[in-house]
């Protein structure tokens, strides 16, 4: 079919747009989905696949079987056609879009033979028209290439709402699938899934999370046919029995990744089976498996050779004994991520033991472990430079002293959440602000913190490593030996009721990388004019929660920053105008006072003159010259004085 196929073009429609693989954006989304929902990750990435590092050991290219024909063609073809298949495949694998691959495939038969498997590696079933064309091509009676053998990745998650058994039945001809993703296909039953895995003995990863109609019938067939299975995600599949999972554990011993989130029916027996039969487990997620106790946790750690991620959120039956019963002198150097959210029975003793046996932990989550105190935080501090992520929300017995010690010992922390740790004050946040690589901080309901904490976070910085080097292209204004660019990206300050508008404006202006800011319940931001920058409240919120909801993300942060700066500039301009008016009024009052001072001086001069005249009169009296009135009186007195002749003589 390959080398001896007749010289004819591929059928019309084959390899065209509906059949092409995902665009780079779609590939990234699929990769993200697989990394978060599917247990398989780097081991199955296409980049590793082309570098011969994939677990599947899939062949690339289609070998030709007639050496004589190859030799003759080699001498007759141009140089570009004589390139080895390995070089062509490596070159084609670096093309950015499926359209480019399609164009290469249509160039000539030699290129088509080396491009077709890359083009069909992961067909894009992202719309129903594309799905229809893919199914029709795969079921052609006499195809130019064996397209069904090239399909290694099959993902129907984008069509999940409408997928049913009839949607997957035409795809059962693909018997070389290594990675099958059927997330949230609620209409899918055992009939459809069994048709896909019956002949797929090379299946490495199966993601059926959210497929609530899948039962143990499919899982038993999986155990029987897919011995190479390395990843299994059955989150939310509550109809799968423990017995079928034990069957998988005993037959599929190459399992590396398990995700059993919200599988309430899972018990200790099935987890113990995986612990004893699958020593190469890298990741296991038992979120909300309420019936899982301490014994399988101890077994997973004890028998696991390479356990790297261990998630036990909301497994409320787990106690300190899960770790205190570990064999002495055994360490787990590979363990990097631990999540014990809401494991409410854990105490400081369990944390101390965990840190002792897993000294290279990078991410630790003890949110809602309310029994933990400063002793546990001081134990976590021993991780030193290895610690990047720590979540201690609702551990309300933690104090400032423990947080200060944590910052002192673990300078590489990038994410820390201390929400609802209501004993913390500005002293803790001021110390946290000195972390050079701090990107995310959660302080929700830390009601003792004030603007002082926000001012400190405003200067949380990542110092310029080479001040004499070239200017930072993204933030040129921050370049210089004494300047910095804040590394903060997400800040959660909801219900920190003592914060004011001024401190948040300073935070926004000093953190250019900020993409998320939560201020729910902060009175200064409960304003109708700021609602246009807020995210929509979750649909399950009641009216009171909606009224208090205040979260800014992405462009909302940028818009809020601009709006508040513009408002502040307007207020500043108005204040300056008011100051100018006040200054003008003050000048007018001063001028009036100056005028009144001149009039007073005139009056003072006149009074001085009068006073001066009185002084001259006094001087005249001193010289013996009587005043005019006194002269007149003297004249009258002299006229009225009787003479002796006028005196009446007695008879």
The multimeric state of the shown protein is single chain
Strand content: 5-15%
Shape: globular
The CATH superfamily of one domain is known as: Ribonuclease Inhibitor
Please tally the β strands and state the result.
Answer: 17
Strand order of the largest sheet: 1-2-3-4-5-6-7-8-9-10-11-12-15-16-17
Q: Helical element count?
A: 24
Gyration radius (Cα, Å) is 44 Å
The residue-averaged pLDDT reads: 81
CATH first level of one domain: Alpha Beta
The biggest beta sheet reads: 15 strands, mixed
Helicity, as a percent range: 40-55%
The fold-level CATH name of one domain is: Leucine-rich repeat, LRR (right-handed beta-alpha superhelix)
Summing up helix and strand content along with how strands pair, one would put the structural category as: alpha/beta
Summarize the structure.
The chain is an alpha/beta fold. Helices cover 41% and strands 8% of the residues.
Layout of strands and helices, then pairs:
Elements: H1 24-36, H2 46-50, H3 67-76, H4 85-92, H5 98-105, H6 109-119, H7 128-138, H8 147-150, E1 153-155, H9 165-168, E2 179-181, H10 190-197, E3 205-207, H11 216-225, E4 231-233, H12 242-251, E5 257-259, H13 268-277, E6 283-285, H14 294-303, E7 309-311, H15 321-324, E8 337-339, H16 348-357, E9 363-365, H17 374-380, E10 389-391, H18 400-409, E11 415-417, H19 426-432, E12 440-442, H20 451-458, E13 462-463, E14 484-485, E15 490-492, H21 501-510, E16 516-518, H22 543-548, E17 551-553, H23 555-622, H24 628-640
Helix pairs in contact: 4-6, 5-6, 10-11, 11-12, 12-13, 13-14, 16-17, 17-18, 18-19, 19-20, 20-21
């Amino acid at each position: 079919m390959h080398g001896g196929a007749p010289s004819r073009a591929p059928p019309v429609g084959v390899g065209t747009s509906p059949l092409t693989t995902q665009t780079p954006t779609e590939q990234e989304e699929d990769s993200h989905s697989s990394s978060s929902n599917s247990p398989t990750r780097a081991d199955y990435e296409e980049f590793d696949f082309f570098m011969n590092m994939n677990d599947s050991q899939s062949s690339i290219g289609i070998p030709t079987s007639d050496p004589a024909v190859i030799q003759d063609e080699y001498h007759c073809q141009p140089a570009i056609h004589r390139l080895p298949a390995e070089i062509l495949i490596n070159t084609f694998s670096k093309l950015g879009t499926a359209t480019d691959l399609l164009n290469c495939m249509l160039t000539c038969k030699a290129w088509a033979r080396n491009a077709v498997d890359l083009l069909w590696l992961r067909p894009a079933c992202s719309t129903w028209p594309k799905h229809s064309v893919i199914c029709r091509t795969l079921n052609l009676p006499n195809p130019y290439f064996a397209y069904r053998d090239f399909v290694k990745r099959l993902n129907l998650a984008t069509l999940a709402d409408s997928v049913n058994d009839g949607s997957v039945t035409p795809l059962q001809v693909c018997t070389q699938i290594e990675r099958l993703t059927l997330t949230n296909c609620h209409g899918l039953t055992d009939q459809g899934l069994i048709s896909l895995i019956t002949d797929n003995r090379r299946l490495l990863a199966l993601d059926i999370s959210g497929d609530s109609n899948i039962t143990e019938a499919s899982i038993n067939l999986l155990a029987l046919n897919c011995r190479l299975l390395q990843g299994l995600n059955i989150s939310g599949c509550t109809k799968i029995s423990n017995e079928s999972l034990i069957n998988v554990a005993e037959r599929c011993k190459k399992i590396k990744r398990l995700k059993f989130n919200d599988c309430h029916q899972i018990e200790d027996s099935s987890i113990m089976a995986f612990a004893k039969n699958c020593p190469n487990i890298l990741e296991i997620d038992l979120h909300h498996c309420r019936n899982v106790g301490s014994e399988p946790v101890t077994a997973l750690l004890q028998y696991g050779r390479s356990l790297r991620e261990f998630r036990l959120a909301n497994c409320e039956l787990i106690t300190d004994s899960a770790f205190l019963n570990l064999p002495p002198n055994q360490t787990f150097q590979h363990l990097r991520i631990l999540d014990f959210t809401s494991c409410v029975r854990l105490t400081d003793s369990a944390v101390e033991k965990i840190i002792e046996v897993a000294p290279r932990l990078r991410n630790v989550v003890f949110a809602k472990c309310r029994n933990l105190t400063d002793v546990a935080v001081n134990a976590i501090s021993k991780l030193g430079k290895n610690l990047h992520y720590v979540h201690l929300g609702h551990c309300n017995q933690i104090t400032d002293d423990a947080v200060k010690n944590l910052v002192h010992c673990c300078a590489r922390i990038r994410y820390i959440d201390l929400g609802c740790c209501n004993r913390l004050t500005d002293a803790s946040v001021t110390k946290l602000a000195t972390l050079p690589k701090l990107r995310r901080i959660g302080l929700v309901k830390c009601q003792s913190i004030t603007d002082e904490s926000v001012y400190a976070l405003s200067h949380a910085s990542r110092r310029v490593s080479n001040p004499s080097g070239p200017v930072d292209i993204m933030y040129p204004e921050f370049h210089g030996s004494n300047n910095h660019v804040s590394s903060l990206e997400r800040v959660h300050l909801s219900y920190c009721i003592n914060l004011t508008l001024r401190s948040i404006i300073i935070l926004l202006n000093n953190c250019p990388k900020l993409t998320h800011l939560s201020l729910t319940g902060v009175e200064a931001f409960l304003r109708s004019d700021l609602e246009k920058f807020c995210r929509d409240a979750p649909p399950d919120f009641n009216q009171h929660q909606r009224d208090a909801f205040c979260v800014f993300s992405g462009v909302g942060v940028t818009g809020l920053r601009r709006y508040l700066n513009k408002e502040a500039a307007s207020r500043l301009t108005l204040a300056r105008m008011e100051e100018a008016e006040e200054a003008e009024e003050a000048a007018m009052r001063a001028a009036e006072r100056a005028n009144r001072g001149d009039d007073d001086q005139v009056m003072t001069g006149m009074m001085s003159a009068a006073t001066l005249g009185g002084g001259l009169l006094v001087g005249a009296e001193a010289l013996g010259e009587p005043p005019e009135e006194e002269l007149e009186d003297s004249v009258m007195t002299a006229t009225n004085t009787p003479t002796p002749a006028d005196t009446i003589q007695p008879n």
